[in-house]
């Protein structure tokens, strides 16, 4: 009988999404692989073949003993790996060290943590293993009338934001996505969106009741390819930053669109910002959800913060304030 040797604590599981960034993952991978080898990384590389495949790949390999994980993909692949980490029960999530080599279209989580988009610089960040323990969000929602749960590590968007993400994702699936696609659909979706009546409760207090345009619950600050819809989010303070945009006219969206990038949203009359540990949202009509750019389901939603529960590798220029 062949003896099964334990996984070396220095060995890396590398989860590669070949389709990330309009197949940038596939194009860049041979060069990334060679550079990892040149830098002395001991790796086991696995490749995703479809939606949510990275969840099972991650969970299975953690059970086999892997504790260092690098993602070669975009925000969606990173989100799947996160869910694999939290759904497995072999070890506590903070026993896993998670790093990123970005090849996606948005790469918003990397913007927060100063991960370079150049693969050689990103590999060098991995080698340095500078750790940071961030918060994680858990959201329950419904899909086909079935209760679902998803973990996220960056930003979750609802309402108009979810519609824009859905249309952007459909374009990506056709191999036509690019960094400007999200911004294009911010304007192009205005004629499709229908307002819904909602009730928002934060930490057991109702903070809003009425017509909703868009909402974001953030752990980190960036989404949509560099937009700052939760500009004050701190990733380890144990709180969601929550931005609510009440009913808006098409003209108001056009007028204030530039502030999505500058983060100067607080003084817009229809915008309010809040912080809390739990968020409950219900609506008379369906409000849809995306988390870390992944289109999910619809209301009702329940958000819970899981403080300091994910150990990630950050860039040397990252500061937490």
Description of the molecule:
The protein is α+β, with helices and mostly antiparallel strands. The protein has 2 domains: 12-129, Rossmann fold (3-Layer(aba) Sandwich), CATH 3.40.50.10330; 136-307, Tumour Suppressor Smad4 (Sandwich), CATH 2.60.200. The chain has 9 helices and 14 strands. A 6-stranded antiparallel beta barrel has the order 7-9-8-12-14-13. Strand 13 and strand 14 (294-313) form a beta hairpin. It is globular and about 55 Å long. The model has no long low-confidence stretch (mean pLDDT 92).
Contiguous uncertain segments of 5+ residues? none
Radius of gyration of CA atoms, rounded to a whole number? 19 Å
What value does the average pLDDT take? 92
The CATH topology of the largest domain:
Tumour Suppressor Smad4
* Main sheet: strand order: 7-9-8-12-14-13
- What CATH first level of the largest domain would be assigned? Mainly Beta
Fraction of helical residues = 25-40%
Number of domains: 2
Quote the beta fraction: 25-35%
**Known CATH architecture of the largest domain:** Sandwich
SS class: alpha+beta
Element order, helices and strands? Answer: EHEHEHEHHEEEHHEEEHHEEEE
Number of helices: 9
Largest sheet geometry: 6 strands, antiparallel, barrel
């Amino acid at each position: 009988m062949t003896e099964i040797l334990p996984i070396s604590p220095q060995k890396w599981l590398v989860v590669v999404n070949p389709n990330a960034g309009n197949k940038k993952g596939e194009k860049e991978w041979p060069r990334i692989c060679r550079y990892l080898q040149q830098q002395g990384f001991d790796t086991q590389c696995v490749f995703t073949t479809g939606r949510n495949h990275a969840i099972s790949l991650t969970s299975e390999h953690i059970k086999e003993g892997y504790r260092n994980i690098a993602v070669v993909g975009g925000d969606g692949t990173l989100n799947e790996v996160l869910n694999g980490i939290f759904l497995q029960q072999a070890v506590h999530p903070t026993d896993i060290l998670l790093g990123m080599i970005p090849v996606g279209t948005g790469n918003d989580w990397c913007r927060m943590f100063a991960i370079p988009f150049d693969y050689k610089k990103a590999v060098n960040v991995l080698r340095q293993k500078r750790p940071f323990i961030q918060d994680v969000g858990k959201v329950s929602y419904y899909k086909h009338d079935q209760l679902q749960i998803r973990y996220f590590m960056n930003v979750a968007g609802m309402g108009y934001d979810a519609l824009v993400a859905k249309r952007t994702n459909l374009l990506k699936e056709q191999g036509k996505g690019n960094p400007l696609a999200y911004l294009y659909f911010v304007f192009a979706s205005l004629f499709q969106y229908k307002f819904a009546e909602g009730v928002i409760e934060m930490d057991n207090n109702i903070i809003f009741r009425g017509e909703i345009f868009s909402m974001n619950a953030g752990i980190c600050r960036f989404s949509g390819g560099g937009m700052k819809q939760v500009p004050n989010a701190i990733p380890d303070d144990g709180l969601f930053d929550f931005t609510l945009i009440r009913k808006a006219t098409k003209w108001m969206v056009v007028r204030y669109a530039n502030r999505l990038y500058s983060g100067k949203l607080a003084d817009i009359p229809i915008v309010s910002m809040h912080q809390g540990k739990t968020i409950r949202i219900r609506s008379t009509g369906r409000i849809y959800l995306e988390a870390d750019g992944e289109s999910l389901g619809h209301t009702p939603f329940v958000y819970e913060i899981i403080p300091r529960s994910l150990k990630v590798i950050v860039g040397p220029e990252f500061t937490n304030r």
